[in-house]
Amino acid sequence: MKSRPPPQKLRQRGILRERVFGCDLGEHLHNSGHEVPQVVKSCADFIEKHGVVDGIYRLSGISSNIQKLSSERL
């Protein structure tokens, strides 16, 4: 009986998928290559699209940080 191929090869073939739920968030972000989880991006995009933007950006209360984050999202 042959040994099983390494996980990386199984992922490339689409046989093995990365866990999203029930795994460490930092590990998931590292494996996916993202800094922010996709669900957070989707929620922020939805809120901005529908015009409810005030109050969702919270960064230490420093307005320059909030403005920077707001401009990066556009």
TrEMBL record:
Keywords: GTPase activation. Residues 23-74 form the Rho-GAP domain. GO terms for cellular component: actin cytoskeleton; cell cortex; fibrillar center; Golgi apparatus; nucleoplasm. GO terms for biological process: small GTPase-mediated signal transduction. Pfam families: RhoGAP. It comes from the Eukaryota. One of its GO terms (molecular function) is GTPase activator activity. This is Rho-GAP domain-containing protein. It comes from Neolamprologus brichardi.
